[in-house]
Amino acid sequence: MTIFNFYLFDRHGTCLYYSEWNRKKQLTMSKDEEFKLMYGMIFSIKSFASRLSPIDMKEGFQNFTTSKYKLHFFETPSGLKFVMNTDLSVGSMKDVLHQIFSSLYVEYIIKNPLCELDEPITSELFKNKLDEYIRALPQFSSKVVA
Length: 146
What we know:
globular, 5 strands, five-stranded antiparallel sheet, ER-Golgi transport, alpha+beta, Beta-Lactamase, Longin-like_dom_sf
């Protein structure tokens, strides 16, 4: 099991934070292009899932799986979007993404008077705590399965 990368978007689609751990394929596009592509895909999947769902989707979509990776998604009531890509063997990461929001983002960004909301995150404390949290997860492994 492994975690590839993590994105945090605001409600307007701006990538506030990005980190990667075990990503083996590097893209040929710029990071800004990748962020726009990811946000556009999340926006489209959310819309598609809510319109075609036969039941009321209180939580919206939480993840989707391709043949190569699994994308996990958590959205706060204020519109912050937490996105994590993992390998296929990883189960639901809903609780992990919620924990990143409630324990890390709230503690080290919201409660920090030096951090500007809706601006890219530059806090070294947040970066270090997130990295420490992710590396301690049982789903984290530095060995990537092909």
